[in-house]
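Example record

The entry below shows one chain as it appears in the dataset: sequence first, then structure tokens.
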Amino acid sequence: MSLRQRPDNRWEILRHGEPFEVHGAGGYQHLRLFRDLGGNTLRTWGIEQLETEVNGESLLDKAHRLGLVVVVGIWLKHPRHGADYGDESFLLEQRNRVRASVKKYRDHPAVLMWGLGNEMEEDGDDPRVWRELEILAQMVKQEDALHPICTVVAGTSDNKVAKMMAHYTSLDILGVNIYGGAETVDGELAAQGWNRPYLLTEFGVRGHWEIPTTSWGAPIEPSPATKAASYASAHDRQFSHGRGLCLGTFCFIWGHKQETTDTWFGMFLASGEKTPVVDAMSRIWTGQEPADPAPVLHELQADFRESHVPAGSEHEVHAELEFDDLTTLSFEWQVVAETHDRRSGGDAEEAPPVIPDCVLQNRGSRARIRIPDTPGPYRVFLYVRDGKGGGAAGNFPFYAE
């Protein structure tokens, strides 16, 4: 695997001597479907994800069998988790761990490149982090000269890429995790002096930290239809308006995740159904319509949406949907407490409880809801499934008083 700058100044990956464009996703579930829908590259965050076996098969072995490759993430500890980049004993332990990981997996045919760290830089102001990354990158290259190194940062704010470049010169590919503002990445990198290849290593719907909120601070999650459109526009912008530096993108997350809500970032429902954002990425990767597109949920409507409402009162809710045959869909309505376990940086969260006895009538795309008796913030959720592996989910917040 190598990098090449073409005569038109665009960069590309060469794999087995042929140009290779990354059609990527962050995650390690639903891999056969990922391959069948046009994906070719997975991204992981830590070595432990490679070591989890399913039916006796490791992730790397399964990826190789399916014709996929992997950006192998090597987790570097974060200062916000207590890592001290001035502590020599910590640095030595981390260096030994990184070296051992590279030596263990460098010869596996599914390895495309190393993902050295993920968002460990915070605001980028601590030069010790960047200097240590330079040491680690040189060490990785001593152990493996065949696979390039990608280091992943959280966005491009705080002039962090320029700060990085002052201390970290052995980096081959820059990875950028970004949600709102993904369309501006190439321009921001140009302004900070980055003129080498980059990847969008996480992108998708705007994050809960960059979205309008209710008067009580609950972020308002975009609809599934809006999410699908944002994935398509963010990916397209890297190639239609950029300088030719983008090697590909990784949609987030190819699986399910509780983060602020049960549905914000997951491209699949917890029960395994693909959502419209999966179809959006398949259109990008293949240029074709998926054989069985998922239902498209445009909006949930109710007179108490994003409002204060009397506890114990009853209200109608309904969904605006797009699907060939609405009569074949199943509908699951829920009232769920607003999370009190909101974390930063994608750290694991505990799912909030479903409130029982709040759905008085389920009439498919319509339902009658009873507001909980206990005052506080809640959400109405709707999960739609088509019985063929497709689904959609939406929610809105409200406040019982």
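Notes for this example: The chain has two domains: 2-286, 296-400. Residues 88-105 form the longest helix (18 residues).
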